[in-house]
Amino acid sequence: MTLPYPLRLLCLCLATFFLVHLVLGLGTWLLSPAAVRMARRLRPGTAARLLLSLRLFPLAGSVFLVAGLCVPSYLWLEPRASAEEVGFTCLAAALMAGAIWAISIARALGAATRSLRYIRRSQRLGRAVQLPGELSPVWVMEGAPVSLVLAGILRPRVFISRAVVDALSAEQLAAALRHERAHRISRDNLKRLLLLLAPDLFPFSRRFATIERAWARFAEWAADDGAVAGDSLRSLSLAAALVRVARLGPAPQPSPLVACLVDAGADLSARVERLLRCVPPGEESARTLPVMAAGGMVAVAASAVAVMMHPVTLHTAHRLFEQLMH
Question: Which stretch of DSSP H or E encloses residue 85?
């Protein structure tokens, strides 16, 4: 197929993204069982950050290479001919990239729309109440199904049904609200949006489901730990709150971007057992791991930028991209 200069750049960027994302994604997929096993030996917050970084690595690496190597080499070295032939391989890879991006964007937009509808419906059903110990108002919903959730991305708000308020004691309600506050502080709803936006390897595949489920589990554990802060009485109150809310009946999750206190798909018994132990065993990992990992990533990124901007690198990359295009 013959394409003009701008469309050839778009096609090349999409094809390069798909092929690089496929290679990095396959490596991530193969490493995911070992990463999940390693995460079990870390503190929940550190484990959640590790798994989130691993899940987003194929996306970040592919965008970095396309923006830092593909686009500059094309704009600098590709002659501005009126039109040029593009090969089948490049077109097929570009179409695959467009497909996985369209699916991930549609998935994220659908979840965001459902979350916004839930917030608007909940605000019509309830009213904002300033509860003791809470800096932000909590929306209490009359006549709503059993729920205690954190909804929203930029300005997350807590929505709680009257049935939950009546079922919990003051200490249990405070512990549950601290759990949702921990989710708000760590911006877990925004992280859920990033996971929805991250493409999979192929259209309609779920190769990263293991990492995403593990991240969700450790994010809940981290919020539990943030809520109790090592206090045994708070730990018992939150465990009791989880059990009481679960006994009120199943609470459907209105959107993947809504953090529920009791998720129907989560392992409630494991959360309760951790809280009853108060200080979980096997989580004494070195606290320097996140700092070392961040420092290593910055050093690698800086070195990569220096290498990519070298003229020899751009010329070599342009020859490779020419072969891909034709």
Answer: strand 84-85
User: What is the SS3 assignment for 144?
Assistant: coil
Task: Report CA-CA distances (Å) from 64 to 41, 57, 68, 302.
Answer: 31, 10, 6, 12
Mean pLDDT of the chain: 85
Structure tokens at 30: 């193969």
Residue written as token pair 């990095």: 24
Ranges of each domain in the chain: 2-280+300-325
Q: Which residue has the tokens 């097929």?
A: 92
End-to-end Cα, the chain, rounded Å: 10
Neighbours of 1 (CB within 10 A): 11
Can you tell me the distance from the alpha carbon of 187 to that of 205, in angstroms, rounded to the nearest whole number? 27
Indicate if the pLDDT at residue 310 is higher than 80.
no
Helix, strand or coil for residue 279? coil
pLDDT digits (tens, 9 = 90+) for 213-255: 999 999 999 999 999 988 899 999 999 999 999 888 777 778 8
Phi, psi (rounded to 5 degrees) for 198: -70, 120
Q: Can you list the positions of beta strands (E) in the chain?
A: 2-3, 84-85, 126-129, 138-141, 148-151, 157-161, 259-260
Tens of pLDDT, residue by residue over 173-201, are 999 999 999 999 999 999 999 999 999 99
Helix (H/G/I), strand (E/B), else coil: 310: coil
Angle between helices 209-228 and 170-185 (to 10 degrees): 130
- The closest alpha carbon to 104, from 212, 176, 238, 266, belongs to 212
**Backbone φ/ψ region at 23: left (φ over 0), alpha (ψ -120 to 50), beta:** alpha
How many CA atoms within 13 Å lie on the side-chain side of 94? 17
Over the Cα atoms of the chain, what is R_g? 24
